[in-house]
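From the thread on structure requests for the teaching lab: each student submitted one protein with a one-line request. Submission from student K.M.:

"Model histidine kinase from Paracoccus kondratievae, tokens only."
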Amino acid sequence: MIRSIRWRLVLAGALAIALALALSGFGLAILFERHVERVTIADLQARALALTAMVQPGGASGPRLRESPEDPLYDQPFSGHYWQVELGDEIRRSRSLWDHVLVTGQPVPSPGEVKVRSLPGPQGEALLAVEQSLMVGQSANPVPLRIIVASHRYELELARRGFLGDLLPYLGLLGAVLLLASWLQITVGLRPLAQVGARVAELTSGSRPRIGRDLPTEVIPLATEIDKLLDAREQELARARHRAANMAHGFKTPLQALLGDAARLRARDEDEIAGSIETIATQMHRHVDRELVRARIQSDRNTSGAEPERIAAKLVEVLRRTPMGAALDWQVPKPSGLRARIDPDDLTEALGALLENAMRHAHEMIQVSIKAEGGHIHIGIRDDGPGVPEAELTRLTQRGLSLDPSGQGQGIGLAMVADITDAAQGELRLSNARPGFLAELVFDALPAQPGA
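Reply posted by the TA:
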């Protein structure tokens, strides 16, 4: 999971969403608290204005305060709602204050000015207060009026907690929706990488020669570099095959000269020396032939595929014309459009070697079977000959090992077939058929061509 780009993006998105929602919740809580505080201040100002009705204009004695209006909110001691009115030297307080005096510790506001204060309450609690100052009277010496209305801040805290309690479920739901949207966005965003992976799989199966450039802009550089790498690999393989073929062809002329010298020595009755030279030259000739086959093998995966039934039919048609093949009963299936992932020339080389091997050992019959099973093409060549000792079966699968010193047996042929099969990433299976011997080639299957 740590190596997954998808999970890394999901984790980063989840952390970003959680941080954003936390900051949003914190910011909304602050905004709500300020809004509630503004509403509370407006209510306190309205109550302060209502308290001015306590002022009773007087005659020569000047204005004085009436009895305070009855209000259950301010009659209960320590209710959290308080007021205090000062007219000159006269002072009135709400019953809820009991014997506590609200002291601001700040200068009295200018007449007509409103100040918002934070004051200690009668029980030491924090109060939000509004202080207002007015001048009463028309004489040359008006009387100052000071009104303080306060409310417990605990109510603001309760409102904030209630708001957060209602907000958190919605934030959780919003976080889940955003996380789902992030997952969908990441899935859609990573889809081009899956498309590249699918095209690489098509390269592996041989159904596509190159990745191509018909992809989203962001992954085109990756696809282009992969295609360049494939081009460079193909060119290097072609150069390697050419070098191997040139080297093998270069050895053939000296080997023919050695065989000619061996023939002249044998004519002079130098049979021992001639036999030694012929043995060495024959072994070298076998290696040269094998390298020539390897040089012809198309080891790249981007092949058009081969139809094994048609190739087998053509090979059998040729072998039937030979003296050994004419005496045998060849059983070959009819073409059905099956296609194997291997170059047609390589499959012709492999089937030719197996059919010739079967022809040398068969008594009366050779059977060719071709079937599709589990996404693979199975090509079987069975003869009714003596078979191979069980102890030698495992040795036959070793490439380059010949059990026939003359070089005419299965050794070099099976080695070539093994090389071709490995290059196509197929499988060569050898077993006794009782009676006879069975050689089976297994390759990946390709879709049948339209109209086949």
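TA comment: The chain has three domains: 7-158, 207-296, 303-452. Confidence is low (pLDDT under 50) at residues 403-410.
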